[in-house]
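dumping this here so i dont lose it again. seq + smiles for magnesium ion
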Amino acid sequence: MIKLDSILIVEDDLLALESLEVFLSKISKNVYAANNANDALQLYYEHKPQIIISDINMPSINGIEMSKQIKKDNPDQPIILISANTESEYIIQAVDLNIDAYIIKPILVNKLYDKIVSIYEKIRLKEEIKIQQKIIIQSEKMVSMGEMIGNIAHQWRQPLNALSSLITNLNIKYDSENLDPEFFKVFFTKSDNLIQKMSETIDDFRNFFNPDKAKQEFDLKIFFSDTIDFFINTYRFPNLKINLICDADIKLVSFKNELMQVIINIFKNSYDAYEDNKIDDKRIDVLVSENSDNVLINIIDFAGGIDEEIIKRVFEPYFTTKYKSDGTGIGLYMSKMIIENSMEGNINLVNSENGVVTEIIIPKLKA
Ligand SMILES: Nc1ncnc2c1ncn2[C@@H]1O[C@H](COP(=O)(O)OP(=O)(O)OP(=O)(O)O)[C@@H](O)[C@H]1O
Ligand SMILES: [Mg+2]
């Protein structure tokens, strides 16, 4: 037998009301009973019962009028109407009101029970769907959080390594009693910069997952000069040269810090490719131009390119060929998310004659 939470029964025939109450109390924890529509409406607003069962023929307000009022308040409220006659006019009105079931007196308990069961199943289904939706929303949140943590871990790896070697060097200097104030000062400045950058990474990602984050307008020539300077100064990779060709006065309204992260990921990949292929002369060209709608960025390296089988997969999360150097395979995946989801642009990697060209197109949206 099913168990409902609450039922409201409305019937002006007191004897019938009583016997229905007895029956319904077997299948519902709470049974609210009224012998007229006014009392019933009060009970309805007070308790919001799962199912309402009501007689049609009642003094003053009849069952149809009462149902009209309730359906106006809550169109989904399940209602079963009971009538002594088969007047088609009532039935038509009941259908118009979207009444869930219609029963002709005398009431057969079995029949009533069947109708209640079928409504109960619908209610349960609806509740289940609601729960499922909540679970989906929750798990989407978890995925985003996992991505955020993965991204932070990715961006932190390099500065953490750098910090670690700075500290090791400091320790060596100390042990050999060679620790002079000048060395310490440099140590302090470098560590402080790295820590600040790591802290900014957290803020950037917090912003990235914040739907209210604001775009800002920035000049691309300044942006790329700053990004290249930052990359060269942070990593200090030997034999690396980055050339910038960018027209003056190209402006973009977008997410500056995130774009910087993308560019750094691409530079890093090119540098890795040069290292893998043992090419000493490491050169990256950055070409920036615009047309009426878009900003076009091409980042070009000459490090040997990517196998055709691999190039199809480079944007997959955790796809990496750098098992030895401990790549996570998240760099390009994250870059694609930022460019395509956040900036509504496009990013693509294509092989050129002797290297890779990363093509980025970003629409010049207004702020
Ligand atoms: N410029 C490039 N030249 C050659 N191969 C490249 C280049 N850029 C990307 N790749 C290939 O694409 C793969 C995926 O790059 P992605 O940046 O997503 O991950 P990763 O560099 O391996 O690891 P990490 O998460 O540390 O960035 C690389 O492992 C590499 O094989
Ligand atoms: Mg990478």
